[in-house]
Design brief:
- The chain is α/β, with parallel strands linked by helices.
- It folds into two domains: about 220 residues, 3-Layer(aba) Sandwich (UDP-N-acetylmuramoyl-L-alanine:D-glutamate ligase); about 150 residues, Mur ligase, C-terminal domain (Protein-Tyrosine Phosphatase, Chain A), CATH 3.90.190.
- Helix content is about 40%, strand content about 20%.
- It has 17 helices and 17 strands.
- Strands 2-3-1-4-5-6-9-10-11 form a nine-stranded mixed beta sheet, with helices on both faces. It has a six-stranded mixed beta sheet with strand order 12-13-17-14-15-16, sandwiched between helices. It has a two-stranded antiparallel ribbon with strand order 7-8.
- β5, α9 and β6 form a beta-alpha-beta unit.
- α1 packs antiparallel against α2.
């Protein structure tokens, strides 16, 4: 492929800016990518031409970042080198910046394999310049309707953009994803046999009510969550495909999930059934890249959660979990995870809702989240701290869900809200910190500054135990 003068200027400008940012102690990829894109809109085509061993893209509503990081962990364990937008910058500018980092000043690619997390709306722009070898599609749910439009629009964008010769890795349990494999031979599916919380009846909000082939209502023999489950159409041949990678024997533990794929037993240090699907997607994609099952199992078992994805922090007041919330289905799954982990223990929540562009301006999606489950399950709610620009909206939604206003606290200051969380919590409580996107990293920065080591936490627990024992004897 002939490289133009515009390409060389774009390449050198982007790389020079990257060096400048590093000198200033910053590690951004988006700004160099934006500058390079402005100079040469076709730069991705040139940067990706050196990926001779293939390009894997990961897209979908939920789980893109975790799935991409799980797959990256597997590939590293298998000794593979690859270009990767690990920071999660999944728009055109971030992807360009990631590829720039893996390209020399002479325009040669440092690696032959690419792994890119790609925003759904960015898939057409990427595929216009590069043809993915493998496309992993996680799921489709309503998310940021003010940005994406209706779900059918998003699905059509992705479906029309992916080339016919791309191998698809699809979630068999999501009919909105499984439809991508209809009339395509180069397709591999992953799925779940059943979970401890699967039911034959569902009252959840779900997207895939109708057959994507004929429009008739889908019949479900089993619901996992949302529209994910075992389904079939009684009017045509569309049904849940047979997964090549199928999870069985699923168990929920305090430290994560345990499950079996064929003869391999896997322990995953991530909570939530959505992370089970993420790990299956990563295994499936790895198999296409000729990575052994043993390498995948080892990498998954050793995986450390990424920032804000069921990430654990130990503060002086105790352990808490930080995880991103951004749409109704994802929020519902987080709440179910909280209830599963709590069992008989009290629950304390910190919920931060912003309405900036990256979060979605319209926060009416909060009314589609099933906060009523906190009341229906008779969970022991100690307190819910609401913060962010839309803290009052969050508190109002919880009030209508049946949460007593005496348990609701509004505090707009991030630092003060974390202070309040630490000051009021008790040791036996299950504590979750749930921010939307633009609050995630500021919140994580505050928690990271306050965390203590595991040894300090153990010592604190022992001292508290001695104190409690002394108080009881007195």
């Amino acid at each position: 492929m002939k490289k133009t003068l515009r390409y060389w200027i774009a390449l050198w400008a982007g790389k020079a800016l990257s060096i400048g940012l590093k000198i200033m102690g910053k590690s951004g990829t988006t700004l160099p990518g934006a500058i390079s894109q402005r100079i040469d809109p076709e730069i991705i085509r040139h940067l990706g031409s050196g990926l001779t061993e293939g390009l894997v893209i990961v897209t979908g509503t939920n789980g893109k970042t975790t799935t991409a990081n799980l797959l990256a962990s597997i590939l590293r364990n298998a000794g593979k080198e690859f270009a990767f937008n690990q920071a999660g910058a999944n728009l055109v500018t971030g992807i360009t910046g990631a590829l720039l980092q893996h390209t020399t000043w002479l325009g040669r690619s440092k690696v032959k394999l690419g792994l890119l997390e790609v925003d759904e709306a960015t898939v057409p722009k990427l595929c216009a310049q590069l043809s993915p070898t493998v496309a992993v599609i996680t799921n489709f749910f309503r998310d940021q309707l003010d940005r994406y439009g209706e779900l059918d629009t998003t699905i059509k964008l992705v479906k029309d953009a992916i080339p016919d010769d791309t191998v698809l890795v699809l979630n068999a349990d999501d009919p909105l994803v499984a439809q991508f494999g209809v009339r395509r031979l180069n397709t591999i599916y992953y799925g779940v046999e059943t979970t401890p919380d699967s039911h034959s009846i569902s009252f959840e909000t779900r997207e895939g009510r109708f057959c994507p082939e004929c429009g008739q209502s889908l019949e479900y023999s089993l619901f996992h969550y949302g529209q994910l489950g075992i389904y079939s159409c009684q009017n045509c041949s569309f049904k849940r495909p047979e997964p090549k990678v199928l999870a069985k024997g699923i168990k929920v533990t305090d430290s994560g999930l345990e499950f079996r794929v064929e003869h391999s037993q896997i322990s995953l240090s991530l909570q939530g059934y959505y992370n089970l699907y993420n790990s299956l997607a990563a295994m499936c994609a790895a198999s296409i890249l000729n990575v052994s099952d043993s390498s995948s199992v080892k990498a998954l078992s050793e995986f450390i959660p990424q920032a804000g994805r069921m990430e654990n922090f130990i503060l002086p007041s105790g352990r808490l979990t930080l995880t991103l919330v951004k749409n109704p289905t994802g929020f519902n799954q987080v709440l179910r995870t909280v209830l599963t982990l709590a069992k008989e223990r009290p629950i304390r929540l910190w919920i931060g809702i912003n309405d900036l562009a990256a979060d979605g301006r319209d926060v009416s999606w909060l009314w589609d989240v099933d906060f009523e489950m906190l009341v229906d399950s008779k969970a022991k709610i100690s307190e819910i701290i609401c913060t962010g620009f839309r803290a009052e909206d969050m508190a109002l939604r919880l009030k209508y869900a049946g949460i007593s206003t005496e348990l609701l606290v509004i505090e707009h200051s991030l630092d003060k809200s974390i202070d309040l969380l630490e000051r009021t919590r008790k040791q036996d409580e299950v504590v979750f910190v749930l921010p939307t996107y633009t609050l995630l990293f500021p919140c994580r920065k505050v928690l990271d500054c306050r965390k203590i080591s595991d040894d300090s936490y153990i010592l604190t627990e022992e001292l508290n135990s001695i104190k409690r024992q002394g108080d009881a004897e007195a």
